[in-house]
Amino acid sequence: MTATPVPAAAKTAPPRLTPGQRRTVAGLLLMVTVSAFEAIGVTTAMPTVARELGNLSLYPVAFAIPLATSVIGMVLAGFWADRRGPRPVLVAGVALFVAGLLVAMLAPTMPVVIAGRTVMSLGAGLNVVVLYVIISLAFPEQLRPKVFAWDSMAWVAPALFGPPLAGFAVTHLSWRWVFGAGAVLAVPALLLMLPAVRGLAAGGDQEVTSGKREPAADAGAARAVLAAVGAAAGAAMLSLAAHSPGPAAALLVLAAVGLLMVTAPRLVPAGTYRLRPGPGAVILTRGLLAAAFMGTDVFLPLLLTQQHGWSPTAAGLTLTAGALSWSAAAWLGAKATDDDTRRRLIRLGLLMITVGIVVCVLSIPQGMPPWLVFIGWVLGGGGIGLGYSQLTVLLLGMTPTAQHGRISSALQTNEQLSIAVVLAVGAAVFGALSTANSGLAFALSLAVSALCGLAGLLVTARRLAS
């Protein structure tokens, strides 16, 4: 009797989403969309916020300190999700996210805006890690690249409508509406997500269901959270150094560098900052890629409004161009089926983002066309779109499922610390030069980000081995 041959396509076809997985995807995408609207809208509105509240020099700090604080939430989320599952982490994250946005919406001064954004970022840190944990628990390995691509494409609607809506609110209503809208939209996102995560246990579900607690694990988690607090404090002090008198600034820088050198290595796999191949190299590369992108992205609206006189709405369209390019490149990158292809896409992405930053810098001198920023940021968005999700897929593929919470936490923690440090250095450069020569201040601030892209290329060439 001859066996009926099985078509090759049937052997290799990826599994289909179940109804429960479809609901999970819907909740994930709504949550990402809300976060994206908040990020793009606030970045569009922040130049006006800083000018209206009379503290333009604190503009970079309004991004750097909240990003540093989000590290605490990310580290806590990793251990918490591995121990108790994603549900309590998600609820706490959304509650803090909403509370922080409401504080920023009602803020009378720029420091209060920064305080509100800091609370919001603590919740966002919890959320970004728990969403990665949900993806790892709810979807098989074959479906994860597609889900991560959908995650990136959830930025499309915010990229299209976020800048014009934020620009309209700033121009015709008030910048406070931008913060309030994020707070309102986060609540239905949570309500949709709760049924989806109810049945998801932690990665180490035997430990969760049995109720047993391991003192050594709890002590390790406590040490990691303390290290996160120290690292966040170091990054925040580095940001504040740019706005302190000479001797105080020097002391803050020394203290910040010391704190970061002691605490940051405790938040990532051993050997990460010594360029050891494996998970550490993936985490380091992701941090450099994200720092190159975000270190540029937050300055572009301010560059176009202050240097070229554009309106907030028009300047915000650069963020639209970058985000749409990111989403399109992520969709193309999701077609990669093997790790060698993913590594090539990561290298190409780093090259594109570095070239894109250089093109943005060329727009700064008087007489140069400001639309060069759009060309540069289409390249930059495409670069991070090609590399960002590929790095996540590589990392989860080389890590046991029971450790996905902690490894996702390490990935996001290093990313946020990298961005916060780059923004702190950019803030120091911008604060020192913006009064005397704003064009040079912008150029050197963006050059810091370009150096991150070059460093990422070196790491991938030497340490992101197969």
TrEMBL record:
Tell me the Pfam families matching this sequence.
Answer: MFS_1 (PF07690)
What would be an example GO MF term here? transmembrane transporter activity
Q: How does it sit in the membrane?
A: Multi-pass membrane protein
Which PROSITE patterns does the UniProt record give?
A: MFS
Query: Where exactly are the transmembrane stretches of this chain?
Result: 25-46, 58-81, 88-107, 119-140, 152-171, 177-200, 221-242, 248-268, 280-304, 310-333, 345-365, 371-396, 417-434, 440-461
Residue ranges of every copy of the Major facilitator superfamily (MFS) profile domain listed in the record:
24-464
A GO cellular component annotation in the UniProt record: plasma membrane
Q: Which UniProt keywords apply?
A: Membrane, Transmembrane, Transmembrane helix
**Localization (cell):** Cell membrane
PANTHER family in the cross-refs: MAJOR FACILITATOR SUPERFAMILY, MULTIDRUG-EFFLUX TRANSPORTER RV1634-RELATED
Its name, as the record gives it, is MFS transporter
Q: Lineage of the native species? A: Bacteria, Bacillati, Actinomycetota, Actinomycetes, Nakamurellales
